[in-house]
Amino acid sequence: MNNNFEDRIDDYLLHRMNEEEEKAFLNEVEHDDEKKELLEFTRNVKDSICSREEKLKAMEDMRQQYERRIASEMACDSEQPSKGRWWFWLSGIAAVLVIGFFAFKPMLMQDSTLQKYDGAIKLLHRENHMQPVHESGKYNNHSAKNKRKKGVKKSDKDSTRVKKSRKSDGKE
Amino acid sequence: MAETITFRTELQEQEARMVAGMATLGQRTQFELYSYCADYFWRNYKGVFFADEHTAADILQNTFITFWENIERRKIYVSDCRIFGSDDKPLKGSILTYFMGIARIKHLEWVRQNMRADNREGSIVMSIDGELCNINECIDLLYDKSQNVMLDIIADLISQMSPRCSEILTKFYYEEKSLETILAEIPSIESKDALKTRKHKCIKELRNSANEIYNRYLNS
């Protein structure tokens, strides 16, 4: 099959022939199976190329649109995590505060109960002995005796101070 | 005899609508289907074949073109809000499964093209659906058994043409430019006769490859 016939096929497919040339060409092809097959093949190649190029053009627009959509979705996703992060930190701080509250609460309660006990003890002493409690925390003999009875020990320092104070009171 | 009534799911109806819109060239529906297929492809291609992103993008492009052409040639079509295949039976699965099936073929063709460059075509044995075959046989197994196999073969070969042949044939047959115009646009070709010879060579290569594949398909 020479290239000349292929050029004629191209002229036919690209409508470069006049009516008479076309009729003659088709008549020639009709009586030759090899030429018919080559014409059919070249027609399929042309149709496939045209179809592919049309679709490639359309797909280029679709691809750009798709990429814009993906980019906008990624932009939305990047905004959401910042809000999420803000809630994350807030909830973390709140959790630390709650845990800290429950961790330190027993300690605070212990101090306050100690104070209460201390106060209660003082109150008990007042009620029982009707004796004021000295500012320095000293007790008179009577209360000291009661304390001893109750098993509360007076410190040695306290006893020496009491003695000294009596002496000083006596001199004056 | 009792008739089996099959209900269409919402997804099936949605897919049928998109395929029908593709056939009627609705641009909005075309983009919707493209987006639907592309999303699925990018999420799942690594489970179907190994390829870098650039190659995967080429495969997606060729796959969608083939998918679109199959819709145009009514290899898959919509009837009564259902998608039917070329055997006139409703598709059992999603069109995405069909789409990834085409992607698989495109990947194999890409592999064959690369192996051909390295003269390793036919040397690698693969497994397709449990059958061992060399790459050419595997691709033949995956070809849809339809009347217009030659059209499919030509379309596939055109997608794999060398860049020079693709450029010359596109300018000549799609843009309908004269040889003189094409010569001016491709300065690396020295003369009109050289351009003509190059064009004829491209057509001859296509024809030989198509006949080889078609004969292998007939004998498979």
Write up what this structure looks like.
The complex is a heterodimer of chains A (172) and B (220). The longest helix of chain A is centred in the middle third of the chain and has 97 residues, at 33-129. Chain A is rod-shaped. Chain A is built from five helices and no strands. With 172 residues, chain A is mostly helical. Chain A has helices spanning 3-13, 19-30, 33-129, 141-150, 156-171. Chain B is mainly alpha-helical and 220 residues long. Helices cover 64% and strands 6% of the residues of chain B. Chain B has helices at 10-23, 27-44, 53-72, 95-117, 135-142, 149-159, 163-174, 179-185, 192-219, and strands at 77-79, 82-84, 125-128, 131-134. The longest helix of chain B is centred in the last third of the chain and has 28 residues, at 192-219. The two termini of chain B are 39 Å apart. In chain B, 27% of the residues are buried. The interface between A and B is medium-sized, with 27 and 31 residues.
